[in-house]
Amino acid sequence: MTDEATAGVEKLSIQPEKTNEIVKIDILLNAAGNAPIMKQRKWTVDWMKDISWVSKFIHKYLKLDPEEKIFLYINQTFAPSPDQILKNLYECYGNQNKLSLHYSINQAWG
Predict the structure, then answer these.
(1) Residue ranges with strand state E in the chain
(2) Which end of the chain is more exposed for a tag (fewer CB within 10 A), N or C?
(3) Residue 63 to residues 38, 69, 85, 99, Cα–Cα distance (Å)
(4) Per-residue pLDDT tens for 71-95?
(5) Cα separation of 93 and 109, whole Å?
(6) What is the sign of the dihedral through the CA atoms of 90, 91, 95 and 97?
């Protein structure tokens, strides 16, 4: 190979990105309906967590019975799927550098 050919290959090499970097976002957990109110509303969490993790966290924090369900809502309108990642929701629906989630024990919206 000539020097020109190898120089072109070196220019095309891509540096790997930092995949182990952890980014945190702020989420606000607001009670809706007859759900118990959390003493601390604002939480800083890893943005790669999914909605099911948030649901389990709330369930554990509120010390609910195993048969009780938690419903989560974005902008008081729709319930995201359990496998939805917080990063995607934050990029689409976050405002003022926070993602606002409402939780309820009974279906409240949608």
Answers:
(1) 24-31, 42-46, 71-74, 98-104
(2) N
(3) 11, 12, 24, 23
(4) 999 988 889 999 999 999 999 999 8
(5) 17
(6) positive
